[in-house]
Specification:
5 helices, globular
């Protein structure tokens, strides 16, 4: 969880090329959502979730962890493809090719949704499931808009 948060918050912004500026209000809302969600997930896992001693060997945890890793790999690779769509100075829309873009038009969204459902399966908490569902609804609607 913390690796992806570090990737999304610190590494990804340094990798993207200059583009349209993000409106300040959108930035504040995204920051508040991520801060609240990070607190909620951390508090849930550190204070309330109880796991049996063999939990890390449980099929539910293993399947969820593998799903999280595959989703993160898809997400990072799809971000790489999107960052390199246009050469410097080019404008206009381009259809991404390669990776999961050969199967779904919103591969970056698909990867992130898979990632958070894997996280929810590995954690088995209502908080992680609620975040996975929020991710599905928010990114699912964005993926539909991008597809159209």
């Amino acid at each position: 969880f913390s690796f992806f948060v570090c990737y999304r918050a610190l590494i990804f912004p340094l990798l993207i090329r200059a583009g349209k500026p993000t409106p300040f209000f959108t930035f504040v809302l995204a920051f508040l959502f991520c801060a609240f969600n990070g607190y909620l997930q951390g508090r849930s896992l550190s204070n309330y979730a109880k796991y049996p001693s063999g939990w890390l060997r449980d099929p539910c945890f293993i399947t969820g962890f593998i799903g999280w890793m595959i989703g993160m790999a898809i997400n990072i690779h799809s971000d790489h493809i999107l960052r390199n769509l246009r050469k410097p100075g080019e404008t206009g829309y381009k259809i991404p090719r390669g990776g999961m873009f050969e199967y779904v038009s919103g591969a970056n969204f698909f990867g992130e949704i898979l990632e958070w459902f894997g996280f929810a399966l590995a954690c088995c908490t209502i908080e992680s499931l609620s975040f996975a569902l929020c991710t599905l609804f928010i990114l699912g609607s964005r993926a539909k808009q991008h597809h159209q």
